[in-house]
Amino acid sequence: MQRTKNLGRDLGLQVRMVFTMLLLTFVYLVFSFILFRVTHAGILLVVIPLGGLFFQYYFSDKIVLSSVGARIVTDREAPRLVGIVQRLAQQADVPMPRVAISQTPMPNAFATGRSPKHAVIVVTTGLLQQLSEPELAAVLGHEMTHIRNRDMVVMTMAGSFAAVAAWLTQWMFWFGPGLGGGYGGRRDNNNGAALVMLATVLVAIISHMLVLALSRYREYAADRGGALLTGQPEQLESALMRISGTMSRIPERDLRQAEPLSALFIAAPKRQIVFEFFSDHPTLEHRIARLQRLSQEMARS
Amino acid sequence: MSWLDALLGRSRPVAARLDNLFGLTTATLTLETEFGLRPTGAAAICFRPVSSGDFAQLESDIQQLLQTSAKDAPLQWSTRSDEFGYEWMLIKAADFENVVTTVHMISRELEDNGYGDRLLASVFQFRDDKGHSVYWMYNYKRGTLYPFVPAGRQSRDNAAEMRLSSILGRELAVEKDLSLWYPLWGIPI
């Protein structure tokens, strides 16, 4: 019993996740403090983008399905695909997610939906064509772990104030730093506005980087959980290599179309990853190195 | 999976619950009197193998255990893997209680060695006088049973399944959430 219990966790990864989340919370607290102390319109400035974000999160399954043109399939239409997902769901004891296929030659898969009950797993036709069945199962195990770990909620919450800050930065760019006026006289007002502007830009940058870091850690966690679910880390490795190998040959237009959805994709749909630090998915080498470590752990036990 | 586990991205394996398997042995009486269903003595355990030496060792240990218990009571078994990458351990014995005990023993062995989360389901076959097969499926993650009545290719007789579950619900831990009554097409028994 000891064996698999320990395999499920990666202490270093969890420490880093907690640390990132604490940092984010701290940045957000400071940010809201400045917003509410300095401006009158603080609530409005926060509520509008947060409302939009919540809407996006709540209807994520519908929005994503329609934006990639994915269609829900039944077990009659795609018995193998649905069969694999069903078995993984049963094994992981999560509700059976809906399964959708998107007509895209680029091999990819992603999971979305506000809760495990509303989850959808989308795979592209490119993925179905290029992966062997064990590799497909490994990718689906990765997505199943995203659902299990509630990555949609976690990442939406983590990104909430980053989105607010980004929205405010844009807003100030177009309409100037006058954020609904400050307390007292004109000079105070100007100082307050400058402070808010500086804070907003800083928060936007820092929180964006923290969210990206957190996103990468969640990817590692999903890799690990998925590999444990299927019991075959090597299949996920080969799937990742195959996906990334073909991805670099995909035309630009497809990539840009897929860009807004990159958060929960199995592999980031980018032509080249410039710096891992600015990317929401870890590099292939790092993911494979971690999976190989997991294989060794599994063999050692 | 708790909220803390989710927040930290820990995929804690779901432990297998084996306690409710034995309910089937007492339910055979009701199945026979109410539905004319008799156990055929065939059952199967479906699990996802792990690519590690440790697991291969465990599988040969299980073979050893089966050989030992076959000395006490006649028992046949075989293994095969399906197109989904799962392994089926097929068991056949004349005495149904022996079948359930054997399934329990193998599951326990997997669970004790830390592979409880690999268990997908186990299947017990029943048949009526006309030769129609009815299966009782055991969901390890929830410790519940549910009926599965295949009717032709990729379709199932929901009415028969509902009848079975309502009558047997009194004595068996029947799964209440109908969305978890997963079929397994092409059961190799």
Any idea how many domains of chain B?
Answer: 1
CATH class descriptor name of chain B: Alpha Beta
Physical arrangement of strands within the biggest beta sheet of chain A: 1-2-4-3
Q: Between the first and last Cα atoms of chain B, what is the distance in angstroms?
A: 33 Å
SSE order of chain B: HHEHEEHEEEH
Query: Which parts of chain A are unreliable, with pLDDT below 50 for 5 consecutive residues or more?
Result: 1-5, 180-187, 247-263, 269-276
Architecture of chain B, according to CATH?
A: 2-Layer Sandwich
Radius of gyration of chain B from the CA trace?
Answer: 17 Å
**In CATH terms, what is the fold-level topology of chain B?**
Alpha-Beta Plaits
What is the radius of gyration of chain A? 21 Å
**What is the strand tally of chain A?**
4
Mean pLDDT of chain B: 89
Number of helices of chain B: 5
Oligomer: heterodimer
Question: Which characteristics define this entry?
Answer:
heterodimer, A: about 300 residues, mainly alpha, 4-stranded mixed beta sheet, 4 strands, about 70% helix, disordered N terminus, B: about 190 residues, alpha+beta, Alpha-Beta Plaits, 6-stranded antiparallel beta sheet
